[in-house]
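Many introductory courses stop at the sequence. We go one step further.
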Amino acid sequence: MKHSSHVSKTWPHLVVERPDPLSQLWIGYLHLSSTSPKLHIGAADSREFRLVQCLFSPQNSLSAKYAPVTQTYERIFSAISMSKDAYNARLQVMASAEGEMRGIIESCVRMLQKQPVAQYLSFIFDGTRLRMDVATGVVSSLLSSGARRGVSA
């Protein structure tokens, strides 16, 4: 039996689970509907999962209802930053910080686009802001037909 940590029962929602009760690792998933399998995003403390969580709703929490939001790179980076970023000299210099943040965020998006969950996520870059949409309207038809095709929102 998997240990699970999620509150929301609205669809779609984010779920964090441990693969087994003895594991210290928590894995983040996107769950599109009650009849669909959970889609692996990554470790709950990974940049990729925290990016999805940040863009999933303004509340930036697991219990938040899906309400896509456009966030600035600074806001996104504050949500996905890691302790190793303190040693990144380009983030410390004002002239290069914005470009470095954007590069890290774009790298996270590229990593997400390599995963199966990518067919349900659309990322829209707009100047110094980013938005993510989750394609939910086609989930039941994709599941019933067994088709694996890209979805654009």
